[in-house]
Amino acid sequence: MLGAVSRHVAALRPGASRAFSTGPVVGYQTRLSQFYHNTLRDDMMILQYVPPQVRARQEELEEARLKAIKENVGGTPPNPLRKRQQTRPPKPRVAESAAHNTPYVDKVTVHIRCREALQNKHNLLSALMTLQVVTGQRAEVIKAKNDAAPWKLRKGMPIGAKVELTGDRMYEFLDKLVEVVLPRMKEYNGLRMDSGDGMGCFTLGFDNSAIGLFPEMEMVYDMFPMVFGFAVNIKTTAGHNPAGRLLLSGLNLPFVHARKPATESLML
Amino acid sequence: MSAYPMALSGRAERHFAGILNVIVPPTKLDTSLREPLFLRQFEVECIEVAIAEEVASVLRQRWSPTEMAAARAPVVQTPKPPAMSTQGFVKCPVVQSKIEQLNNTTLDARCLPLPPDIIDSGTIQLQPEIQSRDVELAMFSRATALRRAQRVTVRGFNSSSVAYQTSVRAGVLLQRDPIVTQPAGKFEERDPIVTQPAGKFEEATDRYFDWIQFISADRFPRDFFFKKGSTAESKWMEQEDVRAGEWFFDAASKPVVKSVKRVVHEDDMIEKSEASKPIVVNSRETEADAAGDQRSLERRLDRTLYLVVKDAKGEWVLPQGSVNGEELLHQAARRNLKEICGGNMSVWMVGNGPVGHSKSAEASTFYVKGHILAGQPNANAELASEFKWITREEIEKTVSADYWLAVKDMLSTI
Q1: pLDDT-based confidence at A34, cuts 50/70/90?
Q2: What single DSSP character describes residue B259?
Q3: How many CB atoms sit inside 10 A of residue B349's CB?
Q4: What does the UniProt entry say about where the protein is found (chain B) (predicted)?
Q5: How many other C-beta atoms are found inside a 10 Å radius of the C-beta of residue B412?
Q6: How far does CA B359 lie from the centroid of its chain?
Q7: Alpha helices of B105-199 — where are they, by DSSP H?
Q8: Are strands B305-310 and B167-176 parallel, antiparallel or unpaired?
Q9: For residue B151, what pLDDT band results from cuts at 50, 70 and 90?
Q10: pLDDT tens-digit series, residues B181-219
Q11: What span, in angstroms and rounded, lies between the C-alpha atoms of A253 and A239?
C-alpha cells in the first residue's frame, strides 16, 4: 500500500536502484493512527460513496448548468452578485473517493509569529523552546522573505518559529490538542463550518492563553519569560472542505455552525 | 465527546499519557458534514418537487374553484429536472428560460396541473396578476421550498432501485472496534491484504530503527526543566536510566549514569501523594479472554469483533431481516437489528448504503455497517436463539462455507 501507511519512509535516492532509507522512521503506532487505519478510513469511504447512477446524473446536471452559463440563457440575473460569481474559474473536479485515495492527515505545522523578535531576536528563544516543549521536536526559525518598512522589518531577519510534524508525532500532537487543550479552553466549541481553504487545509489559531493548557507546559510555565499565541495548520489530502471536515470530525475535532449576530427585531 | 461503551467502563479512562494505549472509540461522524455531492442530489430533488409545488400553488391561487375542479389532475410526480444547478439554488437564467417556456410552449401535464382551456389552446397565458416576479419569488423562496422539502423522504437505497428478481433483505454488520492498540511490529501494512505475521527479522529491524531515532534525537534540556540538584531531577535521572536500558541492544554496553549530588530541599519532607505513585498498566488479556466468553464485549481487545446470531434454522448468520414495502434499506436494517437484539444497544450506523451482500435462493441480503457504542444485545428468542461477538477467524469457523465466501470481504483482518 501507499504513502500514508508504510512504516519506514522509503525515498528513492537519485541513482539508487532500490527504495531504502536509514533516515528517521515515520512510524504509525499511536492510537489515533491505528484508529484511522482500522476504523475511520473504512467509514469515510462508505460515507462518501456515490452510486454510479447518481454520479452519472450529477454529471449530466453539471454539464447542463455549465452549458446554460456559457450560452448565457436568460440574460442578466436579478441578483447582481451572482454575475461576479460566474466569472470564477470552475473548481477542479474532485476524484471519486475510493479505498486508495481516502483522505488522511498528511502534516501538521505549528507556528508562532513573533513580533517581539523585531526588537530583540533573543525573544525568539522563548518561542523556539515553547514549540519544542509542546511538540517534542526541535523548532525551526522562520526568516523574513520580504522587507516591510512600517514594521522595521528587513529581509532575512528571524521573525518566527515553526515545527512540521508528521507521522506519530503529528497524531500525538493532534490527540493532545483534541483531548486536553481544546476542552480546557474557555468558550471554545469548535471549528467553524466555513473554515478550510478548499484544498484540504484547516487552520486553528490560538492566543497566548492556550499555550499554558498543554500538559507539558504546566510544570515549566514560569520558566518562560514570554508566552505566545500560535497557529496549527492541519494539512489533509482531502480535495475539498466537506471531506476534510469529515476526516477531522472523525478524529474528534468539533465543528460548529457560524452564528449570525442577533438582530434588533428579536423580541426580548 | 462521544459516549463510551458502558460495558467497557473499566477501560474507559482516556489516559492521555498513552500508557494504556486506549483506542479512540468510534465517534458519531457528523453526517451533516458528509460530502454534499450526495446530499445535493437529494436537495436538488426535494427542491425540484418543492418548486413544482410552489409554482403550482402560485398559479392555483389565481384560478377559481370550478376551474380547479375541472382541471385535469394528474399524479404529481417528481418532475424530470430541467437544466438546473446542482448547488441547491435555482440559477436565474434557468428560471427565466422556464418562464419563457411557460409562456411559449405547452407543458407536460405531469409537471403542473393546469386548467383545461389553456392546455387545449396550445399556449399558456399566465393571468395578468401573475408576474414573472411572483414565480421568481416562489422559486427563490428557498426557505419555503426547503420547509416543504422536509416532508420528502430521504433518498436511500430501496428495493425499487434494485433490479433483483428475488426479494431483498436488510442485514447489519455490527462491529465492536479494537479497544487497545496493536502491539508494535505486528503488521507492516494496515491493508486488508494479510501479510505474514512479523517474524524475528521484522522485530529486529523495528528495534534497530527505534534505536537510531533514540540516539539521534535532540538532547533533553534537563537544566531547563529541572533545578540543579533537586529531587525532581534525580528522580527523572533514575527513570531515564531505566528507560535508556530498554533501547540498547546490549544492556552491558549502556553507559552508567552519574548520580547527581542531592541537596536537601523542603519538598523532600512532603509525603508521596497519589499522583506520584507509579502507574500500573492493565493487562491486555481480560477475564473474558481467559474464560473464552464469546458473548462478552471485553474479549480480544486488540481485534474487531462482529455480532453473529443463530437464526431460526439454527445457522449462524449476521443479523438480518426483511424489507417491508416502501421501507428504505437503512431503515429496514435498523428496525431488524432492534427486533432481533432489543433496544438496549447504542449503535451508530455508517451511512445509508450497504457494504456487502449475500445471496440465497429466496433472497438477497444487503448489509449495512454499524458500530456498537454501548449496551449488549438482548436476543429475541423467536428470531435469534443465541448471539456471539467473534473475530474474523472465528467467524470462518462458525458459519457455513457458502456464507463465509459471501461475507468474508466485509470483515476486517484487524
Answers
A1: confident
A2: P
A3: 18
A4: Mitochondrion
A5: 17
A6: 25
A7: 116-121, 132-140, 142-149
A8: antiparallel
A9: very low
A10: 776 544 333 332 223 345 677 677 777 777 777 777 777
A11: 19
Say what the pLDDT of residue B169 is. Answer: 87
Closest approach of chain A CAs to the CA of B1, in angstroms? Answer: 7
ipTM of this complex: 0.79
Cell representation of residue A72: 448565457
| E strand or H helix that includes residue A47 | helix A41-47
Minimal Cα distance from B27: which residue of A? A250
Q: What DSSP letter does each residue of A78-119 carry, written as one string?
A: SSHHHHHHHTSPPPPPPPPP-GGG---EEEEEEEEE-GGGGT
Q: Residue A156: is its pLDDT beyond 90?
A: yes
Q: Which of B22, B29, B247 to mutate to test the interface with A (most CBs of A within 10 A)?
A: B29
Distance from CA of A38 to the nearest CA of B (A): 7
Percent of chain A with pLDDT over 70: 79
Q: Name the average pLDDT for chain B.
A: 64
Mutation for B interface: A38, A62, A81, A245, most B CBs within 10 A: A38
Chain B contact present for A126, CB below 8 A: no
On whether any CB of chain A is under 8 Å from the CB of B243, the answer is no
Residue B361's pLDDT is what?
A: 85
pTM: 0.66
Flag whether residue A34 sits within 8 Å of chain B, measured between CB atoms. yes
Give chain A positions within 8 Å (CB) of B209: 8, 25
Contact B182 A34 (CB under 8 A): yes
Nearest to B136 among A50, A78, A251 (CB): A78
Decide: helix, strand or coil at residue B3: coil
pLDDT at A257 over 60: yes
Residues 180-199 of B with CB under 8 A from A: 181-182, 184, 188-191, 193
CB-based contact A138 B1, cutoff 8 Å = no
